[in-house]
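Pilot study result, target chain (316 residues):
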Amino acid sequence: MGLKLADARVLVTGAAGFLGRAVREQLAAAGCAAVMAPRQAEYDLTREADVERLFAAHPVDLVLHLAADVGGIGYNLAHPGRVFYANAVMGALVMEHARRAGAAKFVGVGSVCAYPEHARVPFREEELWDGYPEPTNGAYGSAKRMMLVQGQAYRAQYGFNAVHLLMMNLYGPGDHFEPERSHVIPALIRRLVEATAARAPELVVWGDGRATREFLYVDDAARGILQAAERYDEGEPVNLGAGFEISIRDLAMLLAELAGYRGRLVFDASKPSGQQRRSADVSRAKRAFGFEAAVGFREGLGRTLAWYRQQTGAGR
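Predicted structure:
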């Protein structure tokens, strides 16, 4: 066993975000009292002067780099330059200054979007470099790949303990539900709740519905990150997921059932579906640091739907 969270000084980038909030809650539950959660208004992680000032002011043992600039397919297609630059620069600067400041460990949270467009399913970590990412997420996936390259290079040259987690699609209470930023689950929940309230006869869903995805509940993801922080010290990337896939069509039908929507779902094949299949081999995470997803998919969707209804005051 290596680093102990309860004794560590921890920096969490992206701490105000969807995943960051869940990580902070679990750090508190683990007894970790020294948590630095910088806000973007005070420290812009794309500016080296701000990153340097952050580490000078707050010595830390562990960096959990969760910060990202990303949205759904529409956002990523509209802002590929911004998405690449922001994510590549944040990863490079935060890791470099963590190393300079003497941090003992860096946990970089990457993405399933880094996998090749035509990767074999289930995705295996050793096949990450067997092709270019799916183009709608290519800029984001490539930027996240660069963080893995940097971590392995720093391990080789400096002995820096950088590890990299390949995160599957997240969902759960507190997710981004605004139209431009939302991913498929929160986008569908928002639209289904609105359609149910309006008694809309039909709801149009992007894509033909055949594409598949793997989803990981946000609390499970946070727990996996902290398990890796304490127990994993190798340079090879690790998939963090639930180990299943579901088609967008089946997902939409399940959410419609949970939301009580009685109208017709119409799949618009003229809209992009993104990568055709996504599901990960999660055996390395179980073997290396004992991680397994605990929250069932239907249960997690129900919690997320209930949270959204509570936040918006939308009744059944």
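One observation from the pilot: The mean pLDDT is 95. A full batch analysis is planned for the follow-on phase.
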